[in-house]
Write a structure and sequence with these properties.
Layout: H1 2-22, H2 29-32, H3 49-77, H4 88-95
Helix pairs in contact: 1-3
Length: about 120
Amino acid sequence: MQVAILMIHVAIAIALVVLILLQQGKGAEAGAAFGGGASQTVFGSRGSGGFLSKSTAILAAAFFATSLTLAYYASQAGQAPEAGIPDSRLIEQQRGIPTLDDTPSGMDNAAPVLEGSDD
C-alpha cells in the first residue's frame, strides 16, 4: 500500500511541475497585444488560466494528502508491533543456538589463528 501511494505521490509531483511550467506569468499579457495570444484559443476566449489554475489546485491538494499519508506510514514504521515476529536472538536462545554474544569468557581477546601462514 505504501509503495502504491509513493508512486502516486511521484506522479502527482511530476504533473504539478508540468502544470506550473505551462502557466504564464502575470507579465505575459503585454505580449498578447503583438500577436502572442493566439495559442490560447484552444482553451476558449478566457485562455488557459482558469483550467490550469484549478488543475494545479487539485493536484496540490492531492500532493498534500499523499504527503501526510506517507508521513503517517513512516511514523508507524519505527514502532514495535503489538504481536508479530519476535526478536531473532530470542528465538536462537530458546533453541539453544549459540549467538555472537555467547562467546566463552577466555576467548574475548584471543587473536585468530590463520592456517598455512609461515610467520
